[in-house]
């Protein structure tokens, strides 16, 4: 199979979010894969000179390896749309909604997709725990997290009333909005979706995440050997089918493109809840999307090319002149 394009590709990585280090790892791995496949590719660490960098390097296509705010929230997508450079993954709207956990939950709930109940507390508001529990009809434990952060940064499971103030302050350190939601006991799982115009939407095998402390936090996520990943996940056929369908529906409801990862909690009785959608999933050596793809025989370099296809699909669409309906 020949190369999909001869145009110059830039892998955009780094940026200024709290997930910068992970983004650099993802970007380097993607860059190497595209080089191995013979593409004309450059790696760009995204900063204030991005526009000049893209112009000077003669970039025609962007492969997005940016995580977190600024890279996964529609901002870079909007910038690239404005200057006419097609990019991988989801568009502006799906990226913005996917990054904002409350918007995601609201939209999914409207479509009948189960999400954990909860509320939002803005910075400056300091309600007592008792007031919050009463207003939301929740009981401890609860989860407190920033609305727009990835990689479980700033997340606390509040099991005792004494943890409440600190948990809220921590979440607000990363975002003006903090989300409070029911803690769903049971299993943690993730389902990756690979969508291309040619192949439609492919649901990859689910992965169960077994963290040492029962909580998949930043350390468990990025330190090798800390966490077990069971792929394919050892759930019943019924649960696997259910989370596959919910992941696929979530992808469609948000109008995602390219590869995404949908994270779940599943109760001991097998009821899944969608926690969030990652529209730019990690692509490092320990990342979950490549692990799931490998289960069905999609090697890393093939996976990168399939994600690249989403940018080429976008380029093909923008090359079609818009048809205005006659009045």
CATH domain fold name of the largest domain: D-amino Acid Aminotransferase, Chain A, domain 1
Q: Low-confidence stretches at least 5 residues in length (pLDDT < 50)?
A: none
Radius of gyration: 20 Å
What string gives the helices and strands in order? EHEHEHHHEHEEHEEEEHEHEEHH
Helix/strand structural class = alpha+beta
* Count of runs of 4 or more consecutive helical residues: 11
**Span from first to last CA?**
46 Å
Helix content class? 25-40%
State the total count of DSSP E strands.
13
The overall pLDDT average reads: 92
Shape: globular
CATH structural architecture of the largest domain: 2-Layer Sandwich
> How much strand content do the residues show?
15-25%
> How would a crystallographer describe the biggest sheet?
6 strands, antiparallel
Number of domains: 3
Q: What quaternary form is this?
A: single chain
CATH class category label of the largest domain: Alpha Beta
- CATH homologous superfamily placement of the largest domain: ATP-grasp fold, B domain
Characterise this structure.
Strand 12 and strand 13 form a beta hairpin. The strands form 3 sheets. Strands 8, 9, 10, 11, 12 and 13 form a 6-stranded antiparallel beta sheet that branches. A 4-stranded antiparallel beta sheet has the order 4-7-5-6. The protein folds into 3 domains: about 10-90, Rossmann fold (3-Layer(aba) Sandwich), CATH 3.40.50.20; about 95-115 and about 185-310, D-amino Acid Aminotransferase, Chain A, domain 1 (2-Layer Sandwich), CATH 3.30.470; about 120-180, 2-Layer Sandwich (Dna Ligase, domain 1). It is about 35% helix and about 20% strand. The model has no long low-confidence stretch (mean pLDDT about 90). The protein has 11 helices and 13 strands. It is of the alpha+beta class and about 325 residues long. The chain starts with 8 loop residues before the first strand and ends in an 8-residue tail after the last helix.
């Amino acid at each position: 199979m020949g190369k999909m394009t001869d145009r110059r590709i830039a892998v955009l990585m780094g940026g200024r979010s709290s997930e910068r280090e992970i983004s650099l790892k993802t970007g380097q791995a993607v860059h190497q894969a595209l080089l191995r496949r013979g593409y004309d590719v450059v790696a760009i660490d995204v900063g204030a000179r991005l526009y000049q960098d893209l112009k000077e390097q003669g970039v025609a296509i962007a492969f997005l390896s940016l995580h977190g705010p600024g890279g996964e929230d529609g901002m870079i997508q909007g910038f690239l749309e404005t200057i006419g450079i097609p990019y991988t993954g989801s568009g502006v709207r799906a990226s913005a909604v996917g990054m904002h956990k409350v918007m995601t939950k609201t939209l999914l709930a409207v479509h009948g997709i189960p999400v954990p109940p909860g509320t939002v507390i803005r910075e400056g508001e300091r309600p007592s725990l008792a007031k919050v529990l009463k207003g939301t009809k929740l009981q401890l434990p609860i989860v407190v997290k920033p609305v727009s952060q990835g990689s479980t940064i700033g997340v606390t499971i509040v099991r005792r009333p004494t943890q409440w103030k600190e948990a809220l302050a921590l979440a607000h350190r990363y975002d003006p909005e903090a989300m409070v939601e029911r803690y769903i006991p049971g299993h943690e799982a993730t389902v990756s979706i690979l969508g291309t115009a040619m192949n439609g939407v492919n649901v990859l095998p689910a992965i169960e995440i077994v963290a040492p402390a029962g909580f998949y936090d930043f350390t468990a996520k990025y330190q090798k050997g800390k966490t077990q990943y069971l792929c394919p996940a050892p759930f019943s056929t019924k649960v696997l089918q259910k989370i596959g369908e919910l992941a696929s529906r979530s992808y469609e409801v948000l109008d995602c493109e390219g590869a995404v990862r949908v994270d779940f909690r599943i109760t001991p009785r097998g009821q899944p809840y969608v926690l969030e959608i990652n529209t730019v999933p990690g692509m490092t050596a320990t990342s979950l999307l490549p692990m799931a793809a490998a289960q069905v025989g999609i090697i890393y370099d093939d996976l990168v090319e399939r994600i690249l296809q989403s940018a080429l699909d976008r380029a093909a669409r923008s090359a079609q002149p818009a048809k205005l309906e006659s009045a």
